[in-house]
Every structure is written in C-alpha cells, then in structure tokens.
Amino acid sequence: MNIKLYKRKKHWHYYFCYKGKRYRGSTYSETKELANLYAQKIYNEFYITKNHIKDSTILLEDFIKYHLSSQENNLAKMWAYTKRQLLNKFLKFTQEHNIEYLNDISLKLLEKYKSLLLKQNKPKTVQNTLGVIQTMFKHAVKLKYISDNPVTQLDTIRGIQKNKQRYLTQDEINALLKASKKHYFKDLVMIGVYTGMRRGELVNLCFEDVDLNKKIIYIKNKDNFTTKSRKERVLPLHQNLYQFFNDNKNKKGYCFLKDGQLFNLKSLTLNFIKLCKNLDLKDVSLHTLKHTFISWCLIEGISIFKVARWVGHSTTHITEQYSHLYPEENTNRDIDRLNF
Asked: Could you tell me where the beta strands, DSSP code E, fall in the chain?
C-alpha cells in the first residue's frame, strides 16, 4: 500500500493509485497521525469493495442457498433438484456437528463425512457427491468467502473403475425385454434400449415428439422438464420401435402413463431394479439402458461422433469412455444394425 498525504489549508488529504487510476480526497483531519489512520481505513474499504472480498463469517446454509440460486438457470431441473438434495444432506451433517459457518468446514470434518458416505453408498456415488460439494466450495473461493477449497485435499477414493461402463449383453437384453412385458413399464424399457434416452427423457416423451414419416425422435425441453444439457436434439427411430408408435399414431400427450398420471421416477426406478434382481442382473439400473445403447452402437461400428450426438453428450470425451468397444476397422453401419 502506497498512500501519500499532503496538506491543503488546515486539513490533510490522501492520495493513492490503483491499477493506474488516481484516487484522492480529504481526511478531514488537522493532524497527520489521524489523517494517516483515516487514509488507511479509506484504502482498505476501497480495496475490499474493488476485489469483491466478502465477510468470511457467512452461514453455510445461506451460501448453499445463494450457490443453488445462482446456478438454477444453467442446470436441468432434475440435476438442480439432485444438487439441492445432496447439499442439504451435507448441511444437515454439519449442523449435527454444531458447524454453522462456511469457513469452519475443516478437512477433518470432510473426511468424517466421506467415511459416512462410503458406508452407505458405492464409491462412484460418493465421488459424485463430493464433486457437488467441491463445486460449491470452488464458488466460495471465487467469491473470496474462503481462501482454499478443502475438498481438494481429500484422498482419492479407491475402488472406482474408470472407462468401464456396465452394459447388458444380448442375452441379458432379451431376458429383460421378455420379463418386462409383464410390467407397466415394458414399452419404456424397450424404447430405452433402442434410443439411449435418459430416465427423465423417457418419462417425459410425448407421441408428438416422434415423426413417423422421417423416422426420427425429437428430445424436447418442456414446461416441467429440461434435458441435462438444456439442449434439444434429434435421434433416429429404430425400426423395432416403429410398430409401437405407429399403433399409437393418433394419440397425443405423454407416451407413458399409469392410472392417468406420469410415471413416478422413484417408483419406476425401484420396480425396475427389483425386476433386474429377479433376473439376477447385477449392478443394473435404468441408466444402464443408456450405457447398453452406446456400447452396442460402438460395437456395431456406428461413428462415435454420431452416437455422442444421439445421446446428448456435449463432446465425444464422455462417449470415448466406451472407445474400447469400437472396432478398429469402422464400417459405416446405421442404427438398424442393433437387433436384440
């Protein structure tokens, strides 16, 4: 800090430069000692304002609310809901340990929370949860509520397989499709296998989203639903799905209803997992249908760029996790190469 003082008539004035710009004013003091203290106060307040430095005693609960509200316009509704749930669980944990303020979150506390999560969840789930918390702290560092992100100091979680996604074999697909015919979600499972759509996209699919003439499906944002990337996309209608939509071509509205209502996501997930357990299919969820679609598309030689576009990956980086399945000599095959 380089503050200069000069006297004009009875009062001392201050003068300093910041990023090439001069600032000056009166200290309203007749003594140099008091003028120096006043000038330092002016400079400190100026520096804090210019650099957006915040009060480090902000409540964790308040910052979580601010963090979520600042991101809600950039997140799909389902993902925003998930983040809110995860951060509120973390907040509850901190409150149980009598921690209220953001800057009181220690590495020791985070390690304790990590251990608790690992007892209740799979390593990959814990990694994703800590990733959400880390993003929140990164935001706090950016706004200068805190100086460092404590989550980055946690040890890496072991037992997470990289670049290996669980997907169904052809026999498993056939068994699943056959068994699901006895359940209300049979058509949803079939469409999931042949489109790679996410759970929320499947549940919110409407008959109007399918163009039978062009044989394409539009994945659209709706009033109560947005895609994970918030972008709409188009994917091809597989020949094995044509009959279902042709039989219902005069229908309007949502494709999948139970008792006149949209499928409940939680109930749908639990019922699907129960079916898979009865078939002795391990580590399978509705999201596995997406992995299965991507995997078999690549096995059949469909372009990784085309598959990434179909499933809504913003770049091929995510799709490349399946690249070990992609044949070395790619033949330009189309969607109808899939036939389970």
From this structure: 4-8, 11-18, 21-29, 210-211, 216-219, 233-236, 257-258, 261-262
- Give 208-227 pLDDT, tens digit per residue: 999 999 999 999 998 888 88
Q: Is 225 buried (19+), middle (13-18) or exposed (0-12) by CB count in 10 A? A: middle
Q: Which helix (H) or strand (E) holds 29?
A: strand 21-29
Place of tokens 């008539």: 9
| Separation of CA 107 from chain center | 24
Mean pLDDT value of segment 129-139: 94
CATH architecture of 60-153: Orthogonal Bundle (1.10)
Q: Which of the following CATH numbers is that of domain 170-337: 3.50.50.60, 3.90.226.10, 1.10.443.10, 2.60.120.10?
A: 1.10.443.10
Compute the distance between CA of residue 13 and CA of residue 244 in angstroms, rounded to an integer: 82
Is the distance from CB of 137 to CB of 110 less than 8 angstroms?
A: no
